[in-house]
Structure of Ribokinase:
Amino acid sequence: MITVTGSINLDIVATGPTLPRPGETVTNARLARHPGGKGANQALAAQRLGADVRLIGAVGADDMAEEALKLLQAGGVDLSGVQHINGETTGVALIAVSADGENLIVVCPGANRALRPADVEDADITHMMGVLEIPADTLLAAANRATGFVSLNLAPAMSVPDALLARASLLCVNETEAAFYGDALHAAGALVAISLGGEGAALYRNGTEIAREAAPQVQVVDTVGAGDTFTAALTVALIEGMSEEAALRFAVTAGALACTRAGAQPSLPKRAEVDSLFGTR
């Protein structure tokens, strides 16, 4: 089983012709609401890709919590580790998406920031995935409980304890996050995956590139959730024992498929879809 320790949000998405510049108002957008949060997205992505997944996280005791958890529950993710915290709001992400699929995101963490190390101290964790939309000390506590593979998505970019990096088997970042962390990414000895948007992704060990994979050509509708799909797919593939090159190709394929539908969790591909496209590459 993979235990995901991470964020749970409700995504409020405005899709319009262009993204606004500072001080600019863009109109004629369409509004949608989708369950999201990087932790929840990666949990559901891994479940749809064939893993058994448990999510440890927190939502508010409010009307948005049920909506934020709806697809996770329907998808079979174990939610026994999710707390409903009085006095906190469920996390919300405000997302603007342009006609060409690019996005801007503002996150209101709410209950995600109330998840504490004590909330994971008794957790039985084998393999683990974690994201930085919850406190880093809680993520470290969960990583220290893990006895197997530890996958960390260092997003959004922020200073993290060296001890957390040292626990990782795999670190996943995008280009912007890779620039923020610099050499510290490679110093801990973990595999490092850097996603490159439409250009695919690269995999490094000890600062040396060991694999690179171009993205398949797809019709991009929305890039929200693609990075979470990539991280989950790479983690699942490596835990399953795929070679590093094949795992990277599998992850890039899954991430590309997530771009072909709108929304974060609604866009997450199922294993059969990924296997089908993966087998043609």
In short: The first helix runs from residue 38 to 48. The chain has one domain: 2-278.
